[in-house]
């Protein structure tokens, strides 16, 4: 028996983003049994950020349950390169082709390490323990500061060769649309991310309620109150998401689209127009009827998914969706 009722092996998981570095030991039920958390050093050079990661790992290693850990899974903001074990996250400027996998392997005492993008990690989590559970073909999306995603096809996570497959945020849905920071035009992310929902509302003349910051959450609040400018900005985001989901359904055949991230917290303000637009874009018999549902796992999705993706990549039993 392992302490604290954890049964069987554990996977150490890291969820690395622009604001925080979260760590946990995840059991075969998808529960975090030990946690660690560090802020991502803002504007830090590569070694400074790595030091915070190493501290998070050291804190996990100090737990008595560490003896049951068989692998380490990392879900990182992208782009990631799982082939070479490197990361170049847009929001961690100090890391460009940073050799994260060997460095985490060192910090973790030589355990096997599996790296995936954060969208793929969230997808692994939702398929194993969340809203995509029981579906063999699913698209999962994170709509927040950026728009990421991942795919489950034929019952298995599809990370792609470098760990970035399913990155729906950078499908172009507006051919001559705004230039996206990625270099393309009219990307889903450029239209549907939280900051872009707020930007578009402000540009149209929307004003946030007195004393609140002009965020997507504030736009959602106004939209719930019937403000037509706020409603229009969410409708445009919903249209972009619908076009991306329809393209995906047409390309690979999915049964469900799971949407998480802060913007999904807007609820019906996003989901109602999204389902409406989807019925107009996904029209072929095999693409129509894709269910659109909110994600279930919230802030732990990155950790749970990093563990699940590592377990699938290494063929560990007990951690993979049945």
TrEMBL record:
InterPro entries: ATPase_NBD, ROK, ROK_cs. SUPFAM superfamilies: Actin-like ATPase domain. Keywords: Kinase, Transferase. It holds the Pfam family ROK. The keyword Transferase applies. GO terms for molecular function: kinase activity. It comes from the Bacteria. Belongs to the ROK (NagC/XylR) family. This is Glucokinase. It comes from Actinacidiphila paucisporea.
């Amino acid at each position: 028996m392992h302490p604290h009722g954890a049964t069987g092996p554990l996977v150490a998981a890291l969820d690395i983003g622009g604001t925080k570095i979260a760590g946990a030991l995840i059991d075969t039920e998808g529960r975090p049994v030990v946690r660690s958390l560090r802020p991502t050093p803002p504007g830090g050079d590569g070694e400074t950020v790595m030091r915070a990661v190493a501290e998070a790992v050291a804190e996990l290693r100090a737990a008595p349950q560490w003896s049951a850990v068989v692998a380490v899974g990392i879900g990182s903001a992208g782009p990631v390169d799982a082939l070479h074990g490197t990361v170049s996250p847009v929001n961690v400027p100090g890391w460009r082709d940073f050799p994260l996998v060997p460095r985490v392997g060192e910090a973790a005492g030589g355990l096997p390490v599996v790296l995936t993008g954060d969208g793929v990690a969230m997808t692994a989590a939702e398929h194993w323990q969340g809203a995509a559970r029981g579906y063999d073909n699913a698209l999962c999306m994170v709509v927040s500061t950026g728009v990421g995603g991942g795919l489950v096809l034929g019952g298995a996570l599809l990370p792609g060769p470098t760990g970035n497959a399913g990155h729906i945020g950078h499908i172009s849905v507006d051919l001559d649309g705004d230039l996206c920071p990625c270099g393309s035009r009219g990307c889903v992310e450029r239209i549907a991310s939280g900051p872009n929902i707020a930007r578009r509302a402000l540009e149209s003349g929307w004003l946030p309620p007195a004393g609140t910051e002009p965020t997507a959450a504030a736009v959602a609040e106004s939209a719930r109150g019937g403000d037509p400018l706020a409603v229009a900005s969410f409708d445009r985001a919903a249209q972009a998401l619908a076009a991306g989901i329809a393209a995906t359904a047409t390309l690979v055949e999915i049964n469900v689209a799971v949407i998480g991230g802060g913007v999904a917290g807007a609820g019906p303000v996003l989901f109602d127009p999204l389902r409406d637009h989807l019925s107009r874009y996904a029209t072929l018999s095999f693409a129509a009827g894709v269910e659109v549902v909110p994600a279930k796992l919230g802030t732990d999705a990155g950790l749970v998914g990093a563990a699940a993706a590592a377990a699938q990549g290494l063929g560990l039993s007990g951690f993979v969706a049945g």
